[in-house]
Amino acid sequence: MSSFVFSRDFTSRLVSPLQRNRSTLRLVVITLLLLTAFTIFSPVPFLGVINFQSMGFQVTEVALLSLAMMLSMLTGGIDLSVVSIMNLSAIMTAKLLAANRVPAGAWGPLLLCIGAGVGVGVMCGVLNGLLITRARITPILATLGTMQLLNGIAIIWTRGTSVLVSQDDFINIGNGTIAGIPIPFAILLVTSVAVALLINRTALGVRLTLVGANPTAARFSGLDNNRVLLLTYMTSGFLAAVAGIVIASRSASANPDYGATYILLAIVIVVLGGVNPYGGYATVGGVVLAAICLQIVGSGFNFMRFSLFAYEIAQGLIVIGVLVIDGLTDRGIFRFPLWPKKRRSRDVAGSTPGEENDPVARE
Amino acid sequence: MILILALGVGTINHSFWSVSTVFDIFRNSFVNLIFALGVLVVLASGGIDVSFAAIGIFAGYATAVIFLRSRIEVSVVVPFIVAAAMGLILGLANGAVIATFRLPTLIVTLGTQGIIRGALLLYIGAKALGQLPDALETLNRIDLLRLQLPNGDLARLNIMLIPVVILCVLTELLLRYTVLGRGIYAVGGDVESARRAGFPVARIQLFVYTFVGMLAGMAGMAHVALSRQANPYDLVGGELNVIAAVVLGGASLFGGKGSVLGTVLGVILISLIHNCLILLGVPSFWERATIGLLLLIGAAAQALGNLRQPTMNTVATGAVR
Questions:
Q1: Torsion of Cα atoms, A41 then A45 then A47 then A52, to 10°
Q2: What is the reported pTM?
Q3: B47 contacts A156? CB cut-off 8 A
């Protein structure tokens, strides 16, 4: 039995770096292929500064959501409520701005409003975290519930309508450029670096990954799983809130039902980016690259006049395709269990499927 | 727990207590209940399916389109069979992917939902049809019971009650009295254990998702018939209500638990709330928040209740509520 375990460990340790590099490599290859394909087939020039700029504007929202999703997936859970948190934060900021008529140039009050929106996001994250850790509700169910609840609250708050923003500075954030780079994209880059640092260089980051990779081991190592999870969902909420601010600023409005299709898109991005849905492995670079990749697909479809529905189909195909390919190529080594279970003490000798992942994420 | 809530809500508004309201609630529940039966089986097997609404509306809409275009005169039953067949095939696809590659069920069905919905809107049509084939129109007019009430209202219990009840009974029989049913609960309890105990896990999963697909097809058809129009934008977005209902009725998201009775009560509860909000004059946008809140409360109650039980019980005892 012990030699069986040993050989499993060994092969997984061997395969992990391969898989890690391979998924990022695969992404780069796919992105380049897509770019070439669309350049060839598009009726209108695809490779152009304007197009890249507009993609840069659009990609930020979903990318931030994907990062938020990635964090929760790292811990082995999932956060389905990110879209609702995003909208709620956007609404908060928009309402504050509208109610107080902050004039242009008044950066103090502007930052306060933004801060309030972000604060809302963090609080929602806390709610998620508490439900998962204190009430012991499984992440899927908890975030499913909060998704509904927060969406409902947002609808009640705005009575189902959009909230308009007319503060110029704020709108500039979402629509301006710095040295040709769209500001939202710059925000994305900064945030990604921050998240990557968080995961790789801070104690919290390592704990996070460990909790996802093997919660039982984490607990026995003396980690406070509950605290780690709480902080994870708080950060997830924070990221979702930032996404909301970006959206509010870019479209000069906040709507409780915005981005309903983003959940699928975020999950597609995360899976494409090489994140293991059962926790323990993720790279920020992978996720951002995947987001860009899907943005290219979206823009490409747009250029070629494919319908939006085709984009939806493509997303579904991509996510299933990636999962299948991953499952096929790693068959026999990475056997995905059916469903991420709460780990009860499984003393079944030699078999803990899905836990061979190397709990170290790298940029 | 559910009954308490029902009584509580009922006493607030007195016009609630009338036979026509009860029949209304039933009528509103039919579609969700058929969906919920499928979801129950999926949850019991430890998976989750969010594509059932998409499958449902696909089957319903496509069937309506087929019969409208071809103008074949058929009885009421045929569209349902056709829709069920469509749902079955789609569910089979789901099941095949999940079982063969052992993929996370949430993500796969999320992807499938996108594909199916996209395919429906793209290839079959994005327009709402206001006119249904005659066979389906008659469904609305057939009543099981017609009661003339003292105040002159007509209370109608739709004929759909019969098929729905039959489906409930069949599902209950399946879950409780067949080896397949035990297998479903076993897989839900713990996959590895089930596999080692000799259950054909892949085949069970295949069945489960095919089953929910078939039911979804029927439910979608029912929805189209009962709402007197075929709108391809319907149903998707309401998955949560169904899942909430099933969870409230006692099914555990981890699998291994759940019963038809609980599911029925859960669905009725959701319909109840829907109706009550209307009766109480609460604007419709409170509904989503309420259901979310209820879902959380129910899930919390269930999860905390689980902590007190020794966890070993849920695996082998099968259809324990």
A1: -110
A2: 0.78
A3: no
Element (H, E) at B147: strand B143-148
Tell me, yes or no, if B108 comes closer than 8 A to chain A by beta carbon. Answer: yes
Distance CA A58, CA A64 (A): 11
Closest to B245 (Cα-Cα) out of B229, B258, B255: B258
Length of chain A equals 363
User: Residue B148 is inside which H or E element, if any?
Assistant: strand B143-148
Per-residue pLDDT tens digits for A131-150: 888 887 888 888 888 888 89
Minimum distance, in Å, between the CA of residue A56 and any CA atom of chain B: 25
Mutate one of A326, A339, A346 to test the B interface: name it (highest B CB count within 10 A).
Answer: A339
Contact A35, A297 (CB under 8 A): no
Task: Calculate helix-pair angle for A2-41, A284-303, nearest 10 degrees.
Answer: 30
Task: Determine whether the interchain pair B192/A351 forms a contact, defined as Cβ–Cβ distance below 8 Å.
Answer: yes
Q: Which residue has the tokens 């801060």?
A: A115
Q: For residue range B137-186, list pLDDT tens digits in order.
A: 666 666 555 555 555 445 555 667 777 778 888 887 887 788 888 888 88
Q: What is the ipTM of this complex?
A: 0.76
Among residues A275, A279, A316, the alpha carbon closest in space to that of A294 is found at A316
- A313·B254 Cβ contact <8 A: no
